[in-house]
Amino acid sequence: MRISTASCLCPFLVCLCFIQRCYGASHHVPAKVPSRNQTKLANGETEVHHRPKRGWIWNQFFVLEEHFGTEAQYVGKLHSNSDKGDGSVRYILDGEGAGTIFIIDEVTGDIHATKSLDREKKTHYVLHAQALDRHTEEALEPKSEFIIKVQDINDNAPKFPDGPFVATVPEMSEVGTSVLQVTATDADDPTYGNSARIVYSILQGQPYFSVDPKTGIIRTALANMDREAREHYTVVIQAKDMAGQVGGLSGSTTINITLTDINDNPPKFPQKNYQLYVPESAQVGKAVGKIKANDEDLGVNADIRYSIINSEGANMFSISTDRDTREGIISLKKPLNYERKKTYTLHIEGVNTHVDPRYSYLGSFKDTATLKITVGDVDEAPVFSLEHFIMDVYENAPSGTEVGGVTARDPDSRNSPVRYYLDSKEEGVRYFRIDEASGVIRTTQPLDREDMPWHNITVMASEVDNPSLLSHVPVTVQVLDVNDNPPEIATDEEVIVCESSRPGQVIQTVTAVDKDDFANGQRFSFALPSQLPVNPNFTLRDNEDSTASIIARRRRFNHLTQELYELPIVVWDGGEPSLSGTSTLTLRVCPCQRHGRVRMCQGEAFLSSAGLSTGALIAILLCIVILLAIVVLFITLRRSKKEPLIISEEDIRENVVTYDDEGGGEEDTEAFDIIALRNPAAAEELKFRRDVRPEARQHCVLPRSRRSPSVELDEVDVHEFIKQRLVEGTCSMV
């Protein structure tokens, strides 16, 4: 095999190509001579084995990238030992780029690249070569694989794939503080030459920053960089290949560096003295002014806490910090009074809340200012001497009685006169009036403690010069009690007296009530009326504890003889003067249950509770029984099937004759024919009533007489006849 190469870049490749060409021109020797093996046989002879010769062994070829010549670039030459130079061998090529990028001369075996190659896109190509007999197309050499490597040239500049960059570094940082590391990439072959060897340098940003030429780390180069003086910096970093030598390619990127804030500036008030006007009518707890200290720092480094450091101002005012605006909000703690104090002086201090000890050498991070507050005079409403007035007056006092008085004054220096009024919206104006000039409150009518013991009214005061300014004060009036109500027995219920009561037995204990109010408790005395004769049935005992006991004076009461008794009782209260009242109790006699524990009438209790007497209850029960009897009789008659009562067109009642003559006794038989009574058989004929229509009649089966119709007259039972007619009459009603 013989391999030829068109050109070489480095001296080593030039020498190698020269040796290959010289060696290939003088000798056609295969790349490897086959070895000979000998085997000694049993008869002593030696057998020689021949291994077939290999006509070629392929190594890799090289081709330069980025070739832009007009002719195809020569890559190398393929040659087989079987090629005698007579054109009988045909070379063929297949694989990556065969026929498109790489072409081969079938006779000579020369390989050319027809296109410009880019190593950064593809570094090598794998191809297969074969030598054939041109006439028989038989393979003279087995197919063999070889590689064509694309040789790199410095055709790619370094790039920063992540640029541009943004970085931050604290202000006042020391020299050499790391800011950011940038890294450039080069698409050239890092294993061949210096094409991919990068060196970093700074093009813009000096003298504030520097860059490490090998690592690309950017560091601060200037001490005490102040954010308040300059906050933003633009740094340009260059990356150059070929180790920074002349002719190397370069690329650059931009880094925007911002200095972050630290607390290196104390708060400062723009001025040392301030003035503020506050009217005396300002409300307590409301803001009356603002003050602000400036801090050049940012965020929490600029937070300020305000305080009032002198007692004169701290007693009357308070200050807080508005987190959004960082202003000190001054508020009122106590009411202002122009007449008492017209000016206040406040010493206000502003302090940073987040202090970095590393920068304490810069000084104290606080500042003070003086605020002078002037109190403005305002026309104020009258002020009452008390916040709440409490008065009292006795009940039943005549109209116009003085209850008490209220006082108010003008707090202003003018001391304007004051007028008083009652709130007309309240109910108290019905019972009281007030003197406009003096503020004295009087009654308009007698008051009744038992009706309303307390009255709540509102008094208003206004200045004569400015009636629109009103002030209000509540006034409570207590109505004091006088003994104007007589006592009375507490119970209105009947007192039960058992029939089995014995003389001296306590029937019931009673108490009294009084609408009046006694400061030391109510005291009552009891007695029977002295102007009445002695009660023979009952007496009264005063227990001297505001109770009295009713006691029986005789034995055995009987409710049938007398059921109700009345007992008048006189009650005295303990007031001044003492009042008395007479109450009459009703005592009811009734049989009591056994053991005498529950004094309750057995039968009468139910009637009395229902409100009915015994006679009324009996009448109701009798009516119920009669109604039940009628219903039962009606149902019985409906079920029975009887003959109709009317059996003839003529009514037997037509035989009754009315006349004014006196009857003649048994001998008088002309007025009424009683033969029907003696002979029932004669009335059995079919007759109909004239007052009933035939179609509306109801048939009723009548009971027949047990006797035969042929019985004689004197044998007829008149009683049975009448009974039968009664049944017929009932049937006809049905």
Give a brief description.
With 734 residues, this protein is mainly beta. Among the domains are: 60-151, Cadherins (Immunoglobulin-like), CATH 2.60.40; 165-260, Sandwich (Immunoglobulin-like), CATH 2.60.40.60; 273-376, Cadherins (Immunoglobulin-like, Sandwich); 383-480, Immunoglobulin-like (Sandwich), CATH 2.60.40.60; 488-590, Immunoglobulin-like (Sandwich), CATH 2.60.40.
Can you walk me through this structure?
- This protein is mainly β and 734 residues long.
- Among the domains are: 60-151, Cadherins (Immunoglobulin-like), CATH 2.60.40; 165-260, Cadherins (Immunoglobulin-like), CATH 2.60.40; 273-376, Immunoglobulin-like, CATH 2.60.40.60; 383-480, Sandwich (Immunoglobulin-like), CATH 2.60.40; 488-590, Sandwich (Immunoglobulin-like).
- The chain contains six helices and 41 strands.
- The strands form twelve sheets. It has a four-stranded antiparallel sheet. Strands 4-10-9-6 form a four-stranded mixed sheet, with no helix packed on it. A four-stranded mixed sheet has the order 11-17-16-13, with no helix packed on it.
- Mean pLDDT is 79; it is low at 1-43, 45-54, 602-609, 645-659 and 681-716.
